[in-house]
Amino acid sequence: MARPLDDGISYNDQSFRGLNLEGLRLIDSEFHDCRFASCSFAESVFLSCRFVACVFEECDLSLVQVTGSSFSACRFVDSRVIGVDWTRADWSGVSLGQPIGFERCALSHSTFIGLSLSGIQIKDCVAADVDFREATLSKADFSNSDLDQSLFVNTDLSQADLCTARNYHIVPEQNILKGARFSLPEAMSLLFNMDIDLVEQ
Fold first, then answer.
1. pTM of this prediction exceeds 0.85
2. Judging by beta carbons within 10 Å of its beta carbon (0-12, 13-18, 19+), is residue 168 exposed, middle or buried?
3. CATH number for the domain running over 107-193
4. Looking at the predicted structure, is the pLDDT value of residue 131 above 90?
């Protein structure tokens, strides 16, 4: 029986629902304006695939390998995207202003080291133990996301929105925070990392 998704095929404006493709290995396929709903790709391999303006809703992409694959203007909603090493994807052809977005997703234990993803949206997500070191995340939106134990070192967070983010540990002198937005009481953690004495009046 033919697979619902196959190598080297271009899919345009198609909807896929309820596919169970755990462990799938997909090579050189392209997806334009496609929607995936309630699909499982856990531990699958996307090798040199291209996703443009695609939406993944209520999908499981835990431990997916994205080697050489590109994601332009793609959105992940209510999905599990745990343990993904995004540094293995191909970001060279992704246009400025078309970053990926995550909404109400589980992103824990993922890696974004050194990536340039200005304007990325990570909203209402659990993003614990995520590695953001050396990444350019200017104008990023972290609204209502849990960033417990995530790493920010030499990270460009200029004009990023962390007003409603929580549990972050960001050392000001180790990151670029110009124009970044924070709010109390979570922003007190920034002061605790500075060599100052806080005096309660």
1. yes
2. buried
3. 2.160.20.80
4. yes
